[in-house]
Amino acid sequence: MNEICIHVPSLDKQQTVEVAVSVNGEKRLMNYRVESFDWSGTGGSPVHRIERLRNMIESYDSKWELVQIGAPDGHLVPVMFRQRALEST
């Protein structure tokens, strides 16, 4: 098992969640960020909205990797990214 689920409070734009994990006594810091994608658009078709979402993900900061695309909440879709570099202590 290399994934666990942790419930966190709702985040504002550009907030980062830091999770410290110990693996065999080695502490690792993992950073997560959730971005809200506006799904409503201005008259765009579902295909157009999917293309906009794809472009947003592909052009996102390369230091972060896509982890999950959440279910729409009203007109927003949460998109979760994980920072690629892990720190060990």
In words, what does this structure look like?
With 89 residues, the chain is mainly β. The protein has one domain (16-88). The chain is 15% helix and 42% strand. The chain contains one helix and five strands. It has one helix spanning 46-58; strands spanning 16-23, 26-38, 64-69, 76-83, 87-88. Strands 1, 2, 3, 4 and 5 form a five-stranded antiparallel β-sheet that branches. The longest helix is centred in the middle third of the chain and has 13 residues, at 46-58. The protein starts with 15 loop residues before the first strand and ends with a strand. The mean pLDDT is 81.
Largest sheet report? 5 strands, antiparallel
Name the average pLDDT. 81
| Residues in helices, as a percent range | 10-25%
Instruction: Tell me the radius of gyration.
Output: 15 Å
* Number of structural units classed as domains: 1
Number of strands: 5
Terminal CA distance: 22 Å
Q: How many separate helices?
A: 1
Low-confidence regions: none
> What is the ordering of alpha helices and beta strands?
EEHEEE
Short characterization:
By secondary structure, this protein is mostly beta strands. It has one helix and five strands. It has one domain (16-88).
Search tags:
mainly beta; 89 residues; elongated; 5 strands; single chain
